[in-house]
Amino acid sequence: MKIRRILATAVAIAVTTPAVMLSVTPAYADTAPAAQTPAKPTVKELEKAAAEAQKAYDAAVAAEKIAYQVVEEALSDTAPLAVAAKAARKAADDAAVAKTTADQAVTDAQTALDALPEDATEEVRAAAAKTLSEARTAAEAAATAKTTAEAEAKAAGDLADDARVAADRAYTKARAATKETLAAKTAADAALARAKEEENQGGGECLDEPGLTTVVTGFPSKVTAGTATTFSVRVTNGTDKDMEKVLTYASVHATDKSGAKDIAKYLKLKWTSASSPKWKTVDGDLYIDTIGALKRGEHGDIKLRLDVDAKAPAGQGLTFIAGDYFNEDGCGLTPDAAVNKFDIKAAAGKPVPKPTKAAPAGSGVTPQGSGSSVPVNTTSGTLAATGSSDATTQIALAGGAAVVLGAGAMFIVRRRRTGADA
Question: Could you tell me the residue range of the domain that residue 176 belongs to?
Answer without folding.
Answer: 1-202
